[in-house]
Amino acid sequence: MASLAQRLGFSPDARLLIVNCDDVGSSHSANVAALRAMTYGIATSASLMVPCPWAAEAASMFEGSPVGVHLTLTSEHAGYRWRSLTGAASLCDAGGFLPATTALALDQQDIEEVRAECRAQVDAALSWGVDVTHIDTHMDVLHANPALFAIYLDLAEQLGLPIRLPVQSLFPARDMAEARGILSVDHLIYTWPRPTRDVMFEECPALPYGVTELFTHPVLDGEELRGYDRDHADIRVHDAAALTDPSVAVLLDRHGVQRISYRELRTVQQAKSGQSR
After folding, report:
1. pLDDT tens-digit series, residues 52-94
2. In the 8-state DSSP scheme, what is residue 262?
3. What's this model's pTM, rounded to 2 decimal places?
4. Per-domain residue ranges for the chain?
5. What distance in Å separates the CA atoms of residue 15 and residue 3, rounded to the nearest whole number?
6. Rounded CA gap, 166 and 44, in Å?
7. Integer Cα distance of 155 and 123 in angstroms
8. For residue 27, what are the contacts with CB-CB under 8 A and spacing of at least 6?
9. Does domain 4-273 have CATH number 3.20.20.370?
10. Residue 133, SS3 per DSSP
11. Are 2 and 209 within 8 A, CB to CB?
12. For the chain, percent helix, then strand, then coil, each to nearest 5?
């Protein structure tokens, strides 16, 4: 069977890398950092948090760019909250916001209300003109158990989109996706909370053959970021710097790492399913 790299039109020994900016739409500073990373740096893809207040701005800023939907069922910052699109009771905390943690979300969710919310988030992105290239999930909520993961797979199958698989799973997530013909990358690099630049210099020289995704959380430093994320702001600022660091681009070129986006995977996914966009 042809490898994913071969299905994408590359040689079997190609080393392909998707560099994704998660949490686009969470703030203006996140939008600007991700756009700079994709325009001037090494980032090739982004994931949009549709329920967040700055999501509509991001949809406009990233017009025509490869952007996925970061399916969002939690709202984790103490002083900066967002609500579900559907307003379903099982998706709300006492204040009417999405729950603050994955555990709280899992304790109260109704499966069909989760399904409707996820579809509403993708539909909203499409209505804004986002060229939705993939779906992934914020804070791993849809990776938490087979029932939620099935919703994730259903949506990917309906829309002809590739997905991000969990970094670790207590159930056979990759087998479940492959059984339904849903594409994902071969390998994942999850840097948080380690410095992304350090991780890239460690791992990229020996990057395996096939398709790897490295996902990051870039945000510009300033009062906005420091006001809503008091625990992890430095990590986000470092990511913004790492993705526009010329030495990182030189590193990838030196080791023959070719950058692609989820758009290429979507093309193969939709050809397989007879869908097109």
Report:
1. 999 999 999 999 999 999 999 999 999 999 999 999 999 999 9
2. H
3. 0.97
4. 4-273
5. 12
6. 20
7. 11
8. 52, 54, 219, 224, 225, 228
9. yes
10. strand
11. no
12. 45, 15, 40
